[in-house]
Every structure is written in structure tokens, then in C-alpha cells.
Amino acid sequence: MAQHVTAPVEQAPRSPRRLRTIAIVPAYNEERSIGQVLQEIRSTDPDLEIVVINDASTDRTAQVAARAGVPVVNLPFNVGIGGAVQTGYQYALEHGFEVAIQVDGDGQHDPREIADVLEPIFDGRADLVVGTRFAKGGGYRGTRWRRVGIRLFAAIVSVLVRQRVSDTTSGFRAVNKKALRLFAADYPHDYPEVESIVLLSRHHLKMLEVPVQMRVRVEGNSSITALRSAYYMIKVLLALFIGLFRRYPTPLEEP
Amino acid sequence: MTPLRVSIAAAIAAAILLLVIFELIRSRRLQERYALLWLLTGIVIFVFAVWRGLLSRVAGLVGISYPPSALFVLAAFFVLLVLLHYSTVISKLSDQNRILAQRLGLLEHQLSETNEARHGDAGS
To answer: What's the pLDDT at A199?
Structure first.
């Protein structure tokens, strides 16, 4: 794919904030919350461009987003959160964006904290920044099993990437061009947040966590049931384990 | 009791199956989600091959007098499960394939209509 992005950013020591940035909003049946999420993103940062990836919602998510004047990519059938977010990364790359931040359509990510998550990217301190919920005084509750799962994955991933990771399940994350290109080409399915951190580390890219406050979901419940989360846990554990034996091209270079 | 040779042969076969699955996943020719049932198959057969007492007891429970037959039944059962699973997977894939073909056809049509309309404008 020919990527012809003119990058005036590199030579001019202007404010790094001028890197073209896009907010990727994956949404599946979020008609009640997505309007508010989009409006909040707009009001906190009017310059931030947005794309909604509608993962074959069966409600009016697409219409609500379109009415907000935001570009909407409608997937023809449900591909899951991993596939939806990856679509967002591909959109970002094709439209010449250099930084992307994922903000979930259910409203659990506070748009007012977008700037905090983006900052280390603009400063060049990390290739991936994850807004995590455990650092800043317990904004997260959730069920007990979910918490156990999150902690287990955090412990395993911390060992694998040789860096303390407190929350591997947060989708509130920003990427720079390098990580954007990597994830556009290769992003895990189903439960991508955990595996993608390991993937990133195997490509020698740098991950950083910043504390954020997760909000209670505006509407609807987490679709993850006990049996499903057990299945996901086994699947992700398997993927992490086998991932150890894969070889990755490192580092990912400009094409 | 299961003859020792049968146990050893079955254990080796199961181990090979597990290794092949592992390599297929590692080289990305098999996705984790489609490997889980295969892994379970390999692990169960391996356990029953190695743990001979358990196989004899299970065989006795269901009235199979020759324990190695129970191993066959078990393997056949899991193969059936895998096949059934893949049938559902194929059904889903063919559904998605149809939707993709429909979307593509409609989009191409829409694109050519848009192009024609634009050329019409340019001509007038």
C-alpha cells in the first residue's frame, strides 16, 4: 500500500500537538450512549477528528452517530471488538493520521481524560499509552471474577513484557504511527487488549500506563457472562503462551 | 486392564496430535479459537492413555469389557464434537460470505451510478 503522507511535523519544531490525531470510537448497540460520548469528545477537544466503527449494531447506533456529523464506518456483520478497533486503525492509516486514540462508545472512558492519555504519545515517551483504572484510587468495581481475571492477566503480562502492567483490559488507549501501523496489520481478535500489549513488546515498542477514572457504563451491561469469560481466559492464556514461541520481525520499520 | 503397548501407542499418538496443533497455532495456520476443541481432544486421549486405571473404570461403568475400545469410543466422540463445531463455523462463514458478496455487489453498483452521474454533470 502506498502511503503518501506529507509529514511537515518532522522538520518543524512546532507544538507536537499538531500531529494529526483521530479518536476511534468502536460501538456495538450503543444508541443510548454514543451521542453523549461524541458530544463530550467534541466539547473537550473540538479539533480532534473522530470516526465511529459501527460493529453491525442492530439498534440505531449508526444513525445517532451520523446525526452527530461524525464519519461512520458500518461493518457488514459483527466482527468483535478486536476487528472493529483494527478497522479504526486501518481507517486512520489510510486517512493519513499519525496518532489514534480509542474511546469506547459505551461511555466508560471519560473524554476529558483524552489529553492525559495522548500526552506521552506527543512527547514521544511511548508508542502505546493505556489509560488504566487501578492506579488512581478505585474508580472500578465490576464483578469479583472479572477483577480476578484482570489481575491474573496483569500479572502474566507483566512477566512477559518485563514491565509492571496494572490493567491489561483497558480499551482507553492511544497509539503513535509505529504502533498504529503494527496494529492495522496485526491485531488480535476477541479480547485484543491483553495480547496486543505483548505483541507490542515483542516488536520492541514501548508501552506506558497512565491512571484514569473509568466511569460506570452509561447504558447496558457488559455482555460478558461467566462461561464466556472463562472461555476467553483460556483462549487468551493459550494465545499468550504460544505467542512466546513466535518470532516477530523487529523492529517494525517505515515501509 | 489395557495392554501396555496400547497405552504407549495411544499416548504417543495423542502427544503427536498436541505437538502438531501447537505448531499449527504457532505458525498462524490455526486460530486459537478453533484449536481449543482439538487441544481438549488431545489432552483427554493422552490422559486416558496414560492413566490406565481410569480408563478401565470408565470402560467398566459403561459396560465395555475391553478397555482399549473405550479409548476408541472416546476418540470418536471427540472427533464428532469437532466436526459438529466446524459445521456451525462453516454455517456462520457462509452466511458472512453471502453478506459480503451482497454488500460488494450493491457498493459496486452504487459506485458506477455515482460515476455515471458525475460524468453526466461534466458533459452538460
So the answer is: 92
Asked, for residue A11, whether it belongs to a domain, the answer is no
Q: Is the pLDDT of residue A129 over 80?
A: yes
Range of weakest confidence among A153-157, A177-181, B16-20: A153-157
Chain A residues whose C-beta sits inside 8 Å of any chain B C-beta: 76-77, 189-190, 231, 234-235, 238-239, 242, 245-246
User: Residues of A with CB below 8 A from B22's CB?
Assistant: 242, 245
ipTM greater than 0.85: no
Residue A216 lies in a domain: yes
Q: Name the amino acid, one letter, at B99.
A: I
C-alpha cell, B9: 501407542
Mean pLDDT, to the nearest integer, of A205-221? Answer: 77
Task: Using an 8 Å CB-CB cutoff, list chain B residues near A235.
Answer: 32-33, 36
Question: What is the residue range of A168's domain?
Answer: 19-243
Share of chain A above pLDDT 90, in %: 62
Q: Identify whether A4 is part of a domain.
A: no
Q: What is the CATH number of the domain that holds A193?
A: 3.90.550.10
Examine residue A10 and state whether it is found in any structural domain, yes or no.
Answer: no
* Average pLDDT score over residue span A193-221: 83
User: Is residue B33 less than 8 Å (CB to CB) from chain A?
Assistant: yes
Rounded to 5 degrees, φ, ψ at B61 are: -60, -40
For chain A, what is the domain count? 1
CA distance A225 to A146: 10
- Which H/E stretch holds residue A211? strand A207-211
Q: Of the candidates B50, B101, B95, which has an alpha carbon nearest to the alpha carbon of residue B71? A: B50
